[in-house]
Write a structure and sequence with these properties.
The protein has 175 residues and is mostly helical. It has one domain. α2 packs antiparallel against α3 and α3 runs antiparallel to α5. It starts with 5 loop residues before the first helix and ends in a 40-residue tail after the last helix.
Length: 175
């Protein structure tokens, strides 16, 4: 009978572990060239956010143009009330896009940066209450939105920030 070299007793378990790892990787991430389901979800979420932001940013710019127009009006102008109504409806559209983004990020929270995950429920609630306030359906501090007053907080939504900052860095690897 022939004697087995001791080195084979080391190589056999190592090769066995490598092959089991290969099967596990294929089962969890699919064959070569296919992204893992988690990567595909995050990529889909990123595309959704980019899409919503591209539309929302255009509406936001329209809103800011209306704010500039509002600031140029004299305080006693008759054009203030219709302009406030137009600003409100425009910002409701922008907030609608923001709300869709926040809800989608909440649905796929594994794609969101850990520190930002806890902020999502608050952002959803704030955005919904702002939309409801501007629709006139919910009061804030006991006051309903009334464009007839002729006032508008011109600092509201002064800066457009991207929700892409909430997402984890995009992984370019596939299994």
């Amino acid at each position: 009978m022939r004697k087995t070299h001791p080195i084979f007793w080391i190589f056999v378990p190592v090769l066995l572990a490598i092959s089991v790892g290969g099967f596990w990787g294929t089962a969890n991430y699919g064959p070569l060239g296919n992204p893992s389901p988690a990567i595909a979800e995050c990529s889909s979420l990123r595309d959704f956010v980019k899409n919503e932001e591209s539309i929302g940013k255009v509406e936001w710019q329209q809103y800011r143009d209306l704010v500039d127009e509002f600031l140029a009006l004299p305080a006693a102008s008759n054009e203030r009330i219709p302009l406030i109504e137009k600003m409100a409806s425009t910002v409701i559209g922008v907030l609608g896009h923001d709300l869709a983004i926040y809800k989608e990020m909440d649905k796929f929270s594994s794609c969101v940066v850990q520190e930002k995950r806890t902020e999502l429920p608050g952002l959803i609630e704030e955005t919904e209450s702002a939309i409801n306030f501007l629709n006139g359906s919910t009061p804030i501090n006991g006051n309903y939105f009334n464009p007839e007053l002729g006032t508008w907080n011109t600092a509201y939504y002064e800066e457009y920030l991207s929700a892409l900052d909430f997402l984890k860095a995009q992984s370019k690897t596939t299994a």
